[in-house]
Design a protein that fits this description.
The structure is a homodimer. Chain A has about 220 residues and is mostly helical. Chain A folds into two domains: about 5-145, Ribonuclease iii, N-terminal Endonuclease Domain, Chain A (Orthogonal Bundle), CATH 1.10.1520.10; about 155-220, Double Stranded RNA Binding Domain. Chain A is built from eleven helices and three strands, in the order H-H-H-H-H-H-H-H-H-H-E-E-E-H. Chain A has helices spanning about 5-10, 20-25, 35-55, 65-75, 75-85, 95-100, 105-125, 125-135, 140-145, 155-165, 205-220; strands at about 170-180, 185-190, 200-205. In chain A, strands 1-2-3 form a three-stranded antiparallel sheet. In chain A, a hairpin with a 7-residue loop joins strand 2 and strand 3. Chain A starts with a helix and ends with a helix. The mean pLDDT of chain A is about 90. The interface of A and B includes residues 52, 119, 182 and 189 of A.
Chain lengths: ~220, ~220
């Protein structure tokens, strides 16, 4: 493992309690003192700090758009990018089974470790300090993000995914509507070429049910 | 509407900016200056404060159990209970279409208003103050909650729901497994008496896929 002080310089924080940093870097495959509890804490801090930043930066934007922007900023892909900026892969403490894992598993381990680091820095200092650091880590991304851009809805993403694979577009069919006019529940089937069973989506409107089905389809296909 | 000072006494906070309180109480049906942005902010603050409280109260509990306890503490049902303790229904500002709505809609409007109040108090003061208030609001619930109790997993809840309706138990079938040994994706169908199509669940293990299917089934049935 590289010297931890190089990492701490990149993070912008020198730990008072270095054991906390080591714990944040320890994947569960490497032993019982792993980072999953810190990840739980860090995830909630990150969500809050980003929500607060978006709330103040976009005073006119509705909560749906804020929620989509936040999802973009805290998703695994973004966290794994941050991890690579910190060269976090060089510092992770992994068990023998995980050392050689690549691709999806690796992305997820990196992203989780970033959340664990956030939790660890919070415990090592306070909410003000981690907020300040997170705003620095996210500075460029917060400057770049715009409501409605890059936060494509699931149907659009599914369509683009299928187009990229030169497959036919999905078809959506309402198969059930229950409840009275003001409180309806729509069930939609999304049929995709190559997926044997229709993917189910539920929602309070046809549109929401279709988006839900598209989201589940993306879960299956990605 | 009742005098707002009675509500403020119940909440334990007197607003510096009373317009913020009014906004937190205003449902989107009542006009454009509604509480949805505050709700977005408040939701993230609540999640963070509860995560932090659980992290410190349960130093030995794993993140799965913390996550389930948090879900119990921040779910709509719990927030609607808090709303009733504050008699929040008396203060909500609703449009004509929502005034008479009852049941599910009402619960959801009350719960959302509690989140909006959390966001509003945070903006009116700071994170330390809202944390202190939330710990007071949740004092009894945080003292009562225990890992593994009342945080039943989706399969258990689905089973109990069906038993309560005197229906046969659901059956789970693995219909697809893709990927290599270390990185598999399971697709499970959950068949429920009276639900025409199987409900689909996806996960990195059979168990997780079954839980996912049960969760979707609960979404459909509840």
């Amino acid at each position: 493992m590289k010297k931890l002080n190089i990492l701490q310089k990149k993070l912008g924080h020198t730990f008072n309690d270095e054991a906390m940093l080591v714990r944040a870097l320890t994947h569960r495959s490497a032993g019982s003192r792993h980072n999953e509890r810190l990840e739980f804490l860090g995830d909630s801090i990150l969500s809050m700090v980003i929500a607060d930043a978006l709330f103040h930066r976009f005073p006119k934007v509705n909560e749906g758009d804020m929620s989509r922007m936040r999802a973009t900023l805290v998703r695994e892909k973004t966290l794994a990018e941050l991890a690579r900026e910190f060269e976090l892969g060089e510092y992770l403490i992994l068990g023998p089974g995980e050392l050689k894992s690549g691709g999806y598993r690796r992305e997820s381990i990196l992203a989780d470790a970033v959340e664990a680091l956030i939790g660890a820095i919070y415990l090592d200092t306070d909410i003000g300090r981690i907020q300040q650091l997170l705003l620095a880590w996210y500075d460029e991304r917060l400057n770049d993000i715009q409501p409605g851009i890059d936060q494509k809805d699931p149907k659009t993403r599914l369509q683009e995914l299928l187009q990229g694979k030169r497959k036919p577009l999905p078809t959506y069919t309402v198969v059930d509507v229950i409840g009275e006019a003001h409180n309806q529940k729509f069930t939609v089937h999304c049929q995709i070429d190559g997926v044997p069973q229709p993917v189910v989506g539920i929602g309070t409107s046809r549109r929401k049910a279709e988006q839900s089905a598209a989201e589940h389809a993306l879960d299956i296909m990605l």
